[in-house]
Write a structure and sequence with these properties.
Phosphatidylethanolamine-binding Protein; mainly beta; three-stranded antiparallel β-sheet; disordered N terminus
């Protein structure tokens, strides 16, 4: 089953899941600024056999300033099939790009108003990326063009419980 990921190329679909929430469901506050601000567990299936690395972008498309990046990872090894809860120790070789704060780490969801969508975007790539300098999601997306074998998304919804 092929789909177009907006990069003008045909890619295969993967499955991205979490044991903490279902796709389109409520993101537990534990993984937000109202809780412990740790990353939720995520895993993926149906990856192409010729994958050389994965990239992961976690963002909020509902932010008032435009899409807000919470986590940017690339060169995740092809043998990796999941990231545990509170993934402070990433698989060897994984590179961390800058989120929108800009910091090179996981930034917990903390919407200032209303319910926002928080989307994990996973990409299986046919190469490892050789990037230098400040790697943002825009720089990563540009580098991934023509290297995407498969994609998957997982969306969690969140609205602040504390103010």
């Amino acid at each position: 089953m092929a789909k177009d990921d907006g990069f003008k190329q045909r890619v295969m679909a993967m499955k991205l899941i979490s044991t903490a929430f279902i796709d389109g469901g409520k993101l537990p506050s534990k993984y937000t600024c109202d809780g412990t601000s740790i990353s939720p567990p995520i895993g993926w299936e149906d990856t192409p056999a010729n994958t050389k690395s994965f990239a992961l972008i976690y963002d909020d498309p509902d932010a008032t300033t435009g899409t807000w990046d919470h986590w940017v990872l690339y060169n995740i090894p092809p043998t990796t099939k999941s990231l545990p809860e509170n993934a402070s120790h990433l698989p060897t070789g994984t590179q961390v790009g800058l989120n929108s704060w800009p910091n090179a780490n996981y930034g917990a969801p903390c919407p200032p108003y209303g319910e926002h969508r928080y989307i994990f975007h996973l990409y299986a790539l046919d190469t490892e990326l050789n990037l230098s300098g400040k790697v943002t999601s825009d720089k990563l997306r540009q580098a991934m063009q023509n290297h995407i074998l498969a994609t998957a998304t997982l969306t969690g919804l969140y609205q602040r419980i504390k103010f």
